[in-house]
Amino acid sequence: MQERLIHQDAGGKTFVLVFETGDEVLEGLSRFARERGLSAAHLSGIGAFSHAVLGYFDWETKGYERIPVADQVEVLSLVGDVALQDGEPTVHAHVVVGGRDGSARGGHLLEAHVRPTLEVVLSESPAHLRKRHDPESGLALIALDETDAAGGVPQGEASLPHVPGDNANVAGEQAQRIVEAESDTPRGTSEEGAGLEPH
Fold first, then answer.
1. pLDDT tens figures, 121-156
2. Which residues contact 170 (CB under 8 A, 6 or more apart)?
3. What's the CATH number of domain 2-142, 3.30.1330.80, 3.40.50.1980, 3.40.190.10, 3.30.1330.20?
């Protein structure tokens, strides 16, 4: 597998990974995530496999049914993410593959060998994603309310500022007072807002 950093800004990076014939996809992606210390990323790719094993999650058994794909197939869509699970980067990917007759099969990517190539764009995010065990499904799912490694502010919606109920309208009241004060103060012709009618 070859790799190249193609973009970097504000703590985020975008890489292109090019797999070659015989490369195992999950092994390559997992190794790359560990070597780069990725904690949050998303990926997409296209290419072809000589053979693969897809998975269908059975809700009753809480396990993956294996779906072998023994033929050469086109990778029509590969999408996934990287998140921390038990402190280690974990790759979770789904794939849709197309056969010679145009039929498509899809599922969780359990195993795949490339032939002749697989081109993956992987974008790292500056925010950390963590997974935790979900007792209902038995799966490790992204937990947006998890705190960072230092025990700091959680990521996602839970990290948005919270204004306690008693103070919830403080900003609105302050803005209203400013507007009222401005409307009572005459402006000179050169001042900002001159000539504007108060509403």
1. 999 987 776 767 678 887 667 777 754 444 444 444
2. 163
3. 3.30.1330.80
